[in-house]
Amino acid sequence: MSKSKRSLKRKLLLMSMSFVMLLGPSFTVIGPPPSVHAEEASLRSSIPAEPIKKLTIGKARYAPGETAKFTLSFNETKGFSGKLILEFYLVNKLVGTVSRKITVLQGTSSDLTVSWQPPKTDFRGYIVKAYMEGRPGDFKTAAVDVSSEWTHFPRYGYTSDFPSETAKESEEKIKQLSQEYYLNGYQFYDWMWRHDVSVYSQTDADGKPLKDANGNFISAPYDGNTSYSDLLGRHLYPIAVKQQVEAAQKYGSAAMAYQMNYAARENYEDFGVKREWGLYNKNAIFPSPDPLKYQNGFFFDWVPSALYLQDPGNPEWQSYITKQFNRSVNGFGFDGIHLDQWGAADNDYLYDYEGNERYFSRSYDELINAVKDSLTENNDSKNDVTFNMVGGNGGYSEVPDPVRRRTSITASYGPTRTITATSRRLSRIRGLLMAAKRWSSQAT
Which pTM value belongs to this model? Predict the structure, then answer.
């Protein structure tokens, strides 16, 4: 190598060493000083593993403009102090932060309530992430639903036990479902006194209903000791129904009164239902078929009760039953009516009292709209209607546009995509729910 080339190489090497020396100190200055690293390490070491044990939302749904509240429970196996941070995200965009310096004492209850004011935009869902400063990877999450209507993002559950219980006991079980499972709607399943007269009413010594001067049934007074037997002989306590309705609404959920859309109990004529409204089997003898022999329905071996099918398209039945549905809303504070039907057999025809063939499922839309209109006239703030399409059967096609229900529910696990697409195409429904029952042995 020539002398000039060796000289040039030495100069380049010295320039490179100088650059590294200058560059190295610049990164050290930009980064945190050693004291900051030590402080963060000390902070992390004082905080136990899983410092936040639980993050619970206050309500299943908040109205726009309402303050959201959260309860945090902490690991109390050791005492620690630090900064609690809650971050709020819309999808992956940070839209809010709340922080608070806290001290957790060992072995003591340390639940903490934190508030956040969400944006007022309607129909928005947010993710909440809570962690301790210095431990961002050890976090808990929750969700916030900000919606003026529960039917926009329906998370529909049900309650079916109405025993003798205190208001606190009623509230606690509904509170848990609303907060931990985010249920914002409840079907109150088989809560009623009778299927044709839902609200517990006064009767005479023979079991016949008493009426006021206007010919209306008289609601029976009730307290914590009042109970009645339902269709299958269960003892139900109306005060528990009322308490659970109030609890659901307290925690941001709607309370929907289950009703069979076309059923009347035994001795229905004593309660004003007419045999002329009924649907009769194909072996019925006309004219004037005997309801006890030929009316279609459900009958039980272990209880002296029965359900008799009524024609949902009969205007007199519609007028009668919608009046009873309104009593349910007025008496218990329900937010609307959950209509049920029996399933695949609904696709066939039966006979009306005059012997005419009745494909009665084709009249579901008439009854649904009659219920919606009646509820709206009664109280337009409590007029939600849901309809249970049992079995994913062809009856879907018999609920055409326009039907004024909020949402439909199906219990089919079959071709759900086809059911969904067909329902949306044929009817302007607000939402379609697919029912999922975890334990088949407990299915109701």
Answer: 0.83
